[in-house]
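General statements about sequence and structure are easier to judge against a single worked case. Part of our work consisted of pairing the sequence of a single chain with a tokenised description of its backbone. The amino acid sequence and the backbone structure tokens for this protein are reproduced below.

***
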Amino acid sequence: MTRALPEYVLPDYARAAGADPHVVVAISGGVDSSVTALLLKRAGVRVSAIFMKNWSEPAEDGRCRWEDDVADALAVCERLDIPLNTVDLSQAYWDGVFEDFLAEYARGRTPNPDVLCNREVKFKAFLDHARALGGDFIATGHYARIAARDGRLALLKGCDGNKDQSYFLHALGQAQLAQTLFPVGELPKAEVRRLAREAGLETHAKKDSTGICFIGEQRFREFLARYLPARPGTIRTPEGEVLGAHVGIAYYTLGQREGLKIGGVKGRAEGAWFVAAKDVGSNELVVVQGHDHPLLQSTRLEAESPTWVSGAAPVAPFRCAAKTRYRQPDQACTLTALGPEGLSVEFDDPQRAVTPGQSVVFYAGEECLGGAVIGAAA
């Protein structure tokens, strides 16, 4: 029988599944998934864990980062007396995430592999493995929440605004949410670390992972060059003035300042230069001076492959808020030309460095409605 813990540990939609649900935790070796397992164990439900090996290529130093993470995951599971399984999902990751990642960079776009990883690996391939173990639900350490509303499940922002991860989960649908728990979504990060420390979990002080998961601490440019050969080209102004050379368009993103290696330009005032456009056809990088240069501002974007958490698109025109990058404050907008293949977004205020390949994610207050892949901005 479950103990009387806060509803966020085992919400009503999970309790309705039966008195003794089996929850399979996606344990990564980090503090968030560790506390996810801790809370569920304390709730008295049956808990097991799976460690996903998503990447098999070694880093520059020859080490595989997952080896350290699985050791931490094993230590946590031994402490909590939870059985641990390890599954190799590296092929699923390569096919469902990494090939798309490379194709997008080759097109001159900047993809968001974390969104694809959640949709294709964590809430698809991993979910299948959890079912094979007899799991009724999966649980992850994401900072997000799920709530029953009007006969459906809503994806909500995590209560810790600095850690909210609903942006990366926007491509999930009703079937996936119905089998998922986010026990730490109601908690601030400091509370998660406190719970881990008091429970004697070795991961309580472990540094949060940042950046793209399969790159780890490697330098991004060197990593990408292993898969996409460098194609040096010209750096120019919008007027056609050549200022230097780039090492390959794939290695730059819109709004970027670092790594351009443009010094003082004769006849130009001193000031930083920023990437404003990537001309893949001519292999040219277009740069401008000024953080808020007009060519870096957009009030409208076109997006493709929209997904909606509820399963149904809203009726256009539709007022909501949007983020064009993670941790951006919500931006007021209107959705138009809604359809199965794409949509248009009109922003109330100009947006800086809207980047093709990234996700535009839509919100109504605390609820994440869905999102799409940015195609072009104007």
Summary: The chain has a mean pLDDT of 90.
